[in-house]
TrEMBL record:
InterPro entries recorded: Epigenetic_reg_gene_expr, Nucleotide-bd_a/b_plait_sf, RBD_domain_sf, RRM_dom
GO MF annotation: an example: RNA binding
Keyword flag RNA-binding: yes
Keywords associated with the record: RNA-binding
PROSITE patterns reported in the protein's UniProt record: RRM (PS50102)
Domain of life: Eukaryota
Protein name in the entry: RRM domain-containing protein
PANTHER family, per database record: RNA-BINDING (RRM/RBD/RNP MOTIFS) FAMILY PROTEIN (PTHR36309), RNA-BINDING (RRM_RBD_RNP MOTIFS) FAMILY PROTEIN (PTHR36309:SF1)
All residue ranges annotated as the RRM domain in the record: 62-145
Length: 243
C-alpha cells in the first residue's frame, strides 16, 4: 500500500511539472478516487478530500496571476506595490520551462480575500501598472487551479499515464497532439521575439523622451541662473516672482 501511495505522489509530481501540456488532457481518466494517507498513516475518507479541495478552491479565488514582471522584481517589490490595496500573503514565482531566455517573470500572489483580488485585477486592467522600470505594464489574471504545483487531487478523479505502442489506436491521436504542442511552442517563441523587439523600440522612445525633458529643464535652470529670464520678463512687461 505504501508503494501505491508513493507511485501516486510521483505521478502527481510529474503532472505538476507538465500541467499545461495538451497531451495530459488525453491521458486523464475519471475513475474511483485514489488512496491517500495523512501524516499519522490513517486513511483519509472522501469527505476529508472534499474539504481539503474546497479550501484549495477558496485559495484559488483569492489568488491572482501576474505576468510581464521584470527580472528584477522580488517578493518584497510585489508586496510593497500591492499592500496599499490589499493584504498580501504568499507569493510564488512560476518558472518558464518553455522559454528559459525569457526576460519576464510571472507569479501567483495570494491576497486577503476574493474581493481584494478582484479589486487588484480591476485596477490592473484599468490603468498601466509598472514595476521596476519594465517598459510594459504588468498584466493580471484570475488564478487557475492548474497553475498551482501543490494543488491537492480533485475528489473522484485520478490521472493515469501509460506508454502508447505504435500499433495502439490512440497512438496517431497522441502524435497529432504532440505536433500541435510543438506548433504552439514555435508560435509562442515567435510572438515572444516580436514582443521583445517592440519593447526595445518602446524603451528607446522612452529614453529619448526623458532625455528631451531633461534638456528642457536644464535650459530653464540656466536661464534663471544667468539672469536671462529677468531680462526677458522686463522686455515683455511680465512680472516675475523671485521665489
Amino acid at each position: 500500500m505504501g508503494e501505491q501511495t508513493q507511485m501516486l505522489n510521483h505521478t502527481h509530481f510529474i503532472l505538476s511539472c507538465c500541467s499545461f501540456s495538451p497531451l495530459l488532457q488525453f491521458c486523464q481518466t475519471l475513475i474511483n478516487p485514489p488512496l491517500h494517507y495523512g501524516d499519522s498513516g490513517n486513511f483519509l475518507v472522501m469527505g476529508s478530500e472534499a474539504e481539503v479541495y474546497a479550501k484549495f478552491e477558496e485559495k484559488v479565488k483569492r489568488t491572482i496571476y501576474l505576468d510581464n514582471l521584470s527580472p528584477l522584481v522580488s517578493q518584497t517589490v510585489i508586496t510593497k506595490a500591492f499592500e496599499q490595496y490589499a493584504d498580501v500573503g504568499t507569493i510564488n514565482f512560476i518558472p518558464n520551462y518553455t522559454e528559459p531566455s525569457c526576460n519576464s517573470k510571472s507569479a501567483l500572489v495570494e491576497l486577503g480575500n476574493e474581493k481584494q483580488a478582484n479589486a487588484i485585477l480591476d485596477m490592473l486592467s484599468s490603468y498601466p501598472f509598472m514595476m521596476s522600470g519594465m517598459p510594459r505594464p504588468v498584466r493580471g489574471l484570475p488564478a487557475e487551479p492548474e497553475m498551482f504545483d501543490d494543488r491537492p487531487p480533485k475528489p473522484g478523479r485520478k490521472i493515469q499515464l501509460r506508454w502508447l505502442d505504435p500499433n495502439d489506436p490512440d497512438f496517431e491521436v497522441a502524435q497529432k497532439l504532440k505536433s500541435l504542442a510543438k506548433r504552439h511552442l514555435a508560435e509562442q517563441s515567435f510572438l515572444h521575439k516580436k514582443r521583445l523587439e517592440e519593447e526595445e523600440q518602446l524603451s528607446k522612445k522612452q529614453d529619448a523622451t526623458l532625455k528631451g525633458h531633461y534638456e528642457k529643464f536644464d535650459m530653464m535652470d540656466s536661464l534663471f541662473a544667468d539672469g536671462t529670464s529677468q531680462r526677458l520678463a522686463k522686455r515683455y512687461g511680465v512680472h516675475m516672482l523671485d521665489d
